[in-house]
Amino acid sequence: MAIVSFILNGKPVSCDVPAEETLVDTIRRRFKLTGTKKGCGTGDCGACTVLLDGDAVRSCTLLTGMVHGRSVTTIEGVGTMDRLHPVQQAFVDVNAIQCGYCIPGMVLTAIALLNRNPDPDEAEIREAISGNLCRCTGYQKIVEAISLAAKRMREAGEEAAR
């Protein structure tokens, strides 16, 4: 067992975890944040995606000890019920949400993409989400949502700059 301290959704946390415990298990079991899904357990489906220092990573293949001193953001740390993040709002607006299982990972992947590239084209969006599997939407609505969010975020930035 080792004590691991990190920032979780903007707040400092510490926990005593076994060396082999994955971040997805720590997030779900110890912090009761269930938006991060445990899908395949091998990093192939993207349901467990979180942001680690702003980058989208698969938390099912990352040991909790590896996040010591770093910042982790789950879907619970993005937006609020009263004020959704622009990516979340775009997913709602274009009906990109079907069963919802993959959506937290998709949203976090989209946020990481838009933080790196505020004006991605369709090919860049599809490449960014290529590691996130969705059985329900066929991806077109998800691509539309990310494009809409990018546009809105750019416009909001331009408006704020005025």
Largest sheet: 5 strands, mixed
- Report the CATH architecture of the largest domain: Roll
* CATH level 1 class label of the largest domain: Alpha Beta
Helix-strand pattern: EEHEEEHHHH
Q: Classify the helix fraction into a percent range.
A: 25-40%
Distance between the termini: 52 Å
Task: Please compute the radius of gyration using only Cα atoms.
Answer: 16 Å
What are its keywords?
single chain, 162 residues, alpha+beta, five-stranded mixed beta sheet, 5 helices
Q: Could you describe the 3D structure shown?
A:
The protein is α+β, with helices and mostly antiparallel strands and 162 residues long. The chain has two domains: 2-77, Beta-grasp domain (Ubiquitin-like (UB roll), Roll), CATH 3.10.20; 86-161, [2Fe-2S]-binding domain (DNA polymerase, domain 1), CATH 1.10.150. The protein has helices spanning 23-30, 86-93, 103-116, 122-128, 140-161, and strands at 2-8, 11-17, 49-52, 55-58, 71-73. Strands 2-1-5-3-4 form a five-stranded mixed beta sheet, with helices on both faces. It is globular. The termini are far apart. The mean pLDDT is 95.
